[in-house]
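The following block was generated as part of the benchmark described in Methods. Ligand: 4'-deoxy-4'-aminopyridoxal-5'-phosphate.
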Amino acid sequence: RIYLDHAAAMPVRPEVLSFGMGFSDGFAGNPSTLCREGLVAQEVLATAREKVAALVGASAPDSIIFTGGATESNNIAVRGTALRNRKAGNRIVVSAIEHISVLNPAKYLQKSGFSLTPAPVDRYGVIDLDALGAAVTPETVVTSVHYANNEIGTVEPIREVAAIVHDRGGLLHVDATDAAGRIPIDVERDGIDLLTLSGNQLGGPQGAGALYIRPGVRVQPVLVGGGQERGLRPGTEDVVGIACMGEAARLAKEEMPEESRRLAAIRDRLIAGITGLEEAYLTGHPTERLPHHASFRFSRIEGESIQLAMDLLGIAVATGSACTSRTLEASHVLLAIGLAHEEAHGSMIATFGRGNSVEEVPRIVGAVEETVKRLRAITPL
Ligand code: PMP
């Protein structure tokens, strides 16, 4: 089997798994208690915080809070920051192709009186900086633009975005779920105020995430309870999951240059092979894209049929974001880059990881060619 759905779920890295197994020997500390076991657990969290902070260039480890995943981080970043800073203004701006875990918190704020402006993107999914400049006003408290898109792989010009947002006195939240560990991120250099990270996308287990909050930025909790994670994410921390996320972040930082080059070679070979097929097109940016990400559309066929047919041939691909796949609606990302509804339905996404190699590319291209031909022969379109 060839697994090409790393954007939906990354296999936990064996090194991370054995690191996590180190906690199987009676480890039971709650980081909030003062007994020795609690202090050990606190140390475990502190180490993980340092490792995650180092991955994104955050100089103060305490600027990282741990959460239950990227969705939680996005909710705290968008809702928690907008609500806490409401006195400074009641406008928010999000790019049109954000993940639903940013879009839906933004819509929630809209219902409670915020004005929401979507920022458009071009046909490659790159944010339109002029339009962003017009959308962000001095009343805009939070602007959210992801580092890279999970459906089309496009990497955004975050430094330019930050300059625009800061020029108007606002805060910039960046969802780096898919970019972290794959391309260099530096919250200082990039001018990021809040940054979302997912443990699984770094090679750790699902159910752990983090949010970087620039020191001094005021945020209110979305979930209320105890004082864990500075009160911003109450509830006992998933200590082992977080420890594993930290270790995955450390490994990702260390191996990123070489691994990203290796993945980009697979990506480029696959893009060359598939765009050589009839009526097959790349989606997203041809060069400014994540190293592990290749995405396509095929005319006159449905992405779900491609996904199922490829699955039967032993290859796991995606057709959209896993988080919205049950709705069967056309992807808001593909519509926002200007595709017609029928074009947006014929999408296929391949995302690579450590288990993939460039030698697999001919088999993948062959399977896509066979699938597309067969489906077109039976399509009523
Ligand atoms: N943001 C982006 C850009 C994503 O790609 C995803 C997951 N695909 C999420 C947020 C949500 O992640 P989780 O389901 O782990 O909360």
